[in-house]
Amino acid sequence: MGNLSVVGLQWGDEGKGKLVDYLAGQFDAVARFNGGSNAGHTVVIGEKKHTFHLVPSGALKGKELLIGAGVALDPVILREELSLLPERIRGKLLIDGRCSLVSPFDKELDAVLEQMRGSSAIGTTRRGIGPAYAMRALRLALRASDLLNNPDPEALSQFYSRLGIDPTGFRAWIEESKQVVAGLVGDVGSRIVDIGQGGGSVLFEASQGTLLDLLHGSYPFVTSTHTVVSYIPAGLGIPPSEAGEPLGVMKCYTTRVGSGPFPTEIKDPTSDKIRSVGNEYGATTGRPRRVGWLDLVALRYAIRLNGVKNIAVSKLDVLSEVKEFRACVSYRHMGSETGDFQRSLGHLHEVEPVYESPFSMHGAKYDAELPAQAKKLVEYLEAALGVRVSLVSHGEERSRTIEL
Ligand code: IMP
Ligand code: MG
Question: Quick check: CB of 223 below 6 Å from ligand 1?
Fold first, then answer.
């Protein structure tokens, strides 16, 4: 088996964590290539729920765990996360020395910037991700490898001071971070190439979703890194030829956390119903997620950007409790209709969704076999999106998965 990547086709929270855990058994390692602790990947095994922010979701399958150069690494969160997991998991972890670090001062800056934006705040997770990537672009960032060489925080302290952020505790933070990453820092790109040369394979786990991509998403209401599969080689330091096949993940409705345009957002009580049945609350921040109908216009864009041929569809069980099912087939704007998401990006907050309600998923029951209503949905999606649906998820638990 070759390498495979799991990529979100919406605004994040598509169910990537569950899918990565489900698939990880077939791979030698699971690698994160983007984002940071803004991610919240949930894996449910039996009664137990695990939320991963930095550790790749393959952890519970005993796989090698790789954190690539493209990740913004918060050592404090990593320490917390590791402390909740069995001790042996630390021994599986390799962190690329080129990872930019997220400091407590970046988190403070995140909050300050959000406050400054006032009513146009992005609604970030306040995990300091934007500032950490900005520090990288400013060529000021501390990287994981720097921790090994006793860095002098003087210049950085001055930088934060000038922004009105008190840098007291910088040295203590460096000392603490050093301990967290001790013995874990190396070259993730080389490790992935070595695994491939030894006949093994790696599963790449994207965080966030395509529509939150810094370049290709609904800018400025996006995250501060790249969430598309074309970033896998850069974010890991591997040749594009090693990036593997992408598997797109989508929910059978849409959610979004934070601000920004959301054409298919539901403005009636159905959104509360879906939120409560689907437990649509941010895994990182606990914020209620905004809920919307399926958006085929946005999905076609995400599928094209990522070159996806196979998709996994999640949360089918949620629609069993909802009378209606709607799919947005085009956008209406200034009297004309379009199916072009990219051209709509500049005025996404003004478009009006044009819906189709081809069937209802209400009352569908899931066993080992797909019920007739779900088969209809699969056929509908395959025709509308030009992809193959190869996997369906109908519940949080690992076993609630059907391969097609
Ligand atoms: P940031 O990534 O914390 O800077 O937040 C920027 C935007 O991305 C906000 O709208 C967040 O809610 C959103 N976001 C960041 N990470 C995730 C995620 O893992 N799932 C869903 N939304 C996310
Ligand atoms: Mg999430």
Answer: yes
